[in-house]
Amino acid sequence: MIAEFKQFAMKGNVIDLAIGVIIGAAFSKILSSFIDDVITPLLLKPALEAANLQKIEDLTLLGGVKYGMFLSSVINFIIVAFVLFLFVKGMNAAKKKEEAAPATPVGPSQEELLTEIRDLLKK
User: Fold this and answer.
1) CA dist., res. 79 & res. 24, Å (int)
2) Which of 40, 47, 77, 93 counts the highest number of beta carbons within 10 A?
3) Rounded Cα gap, residues 24 and 16, in angstroms
């Protein structure tokens, strides 16, 4: 059973997934800081100042319903989705450039081989 677990844990897919999760967690912290410390203050500062608030999370309705946290989460989601879209778009463009480079053929072309066969058959 230990050997089977070791074989399972050392498969390429499991290790790739673990690396992806770790990098994703680190990326998430960077992105959260970017949103909370840069984007939100720049975009929402005038609106927050007009409402006499320091953070978007402090927004409430008359009944005391705090919708600021929800609004903050929606803004975070939109920004994260846009950044991931740009990342995937860049990766796809890089992949297309790799695929676009044609491989140089090794040896004679198909046309040359057919010509040789035809000439040999004539003889």
Assistant:
1) 15
2) 40
3) 12
Contact 31, 80 (CB under 8 A): yes
Can you list the alpha helix ranges (DSSP code H) found in the chain? 2-9, 12-34, 40-50, 68-100, 110-122
Distance CA 45, CA 54 (A): 8
Give the angle subtended at the CA of 103 by the CAs of 99 and 109, to the nearest 5°. 140
pTM: 0.51
Rounded CA gap, 56 and 32, in Å?
Answer: 14
53 within 8 A of 59, measured Cβ to Cβ = yes
Instruction: Give the mean model confidence (pLDDT) for residues 49-67.
Output: 77
* Residue 65 DSSP class: -
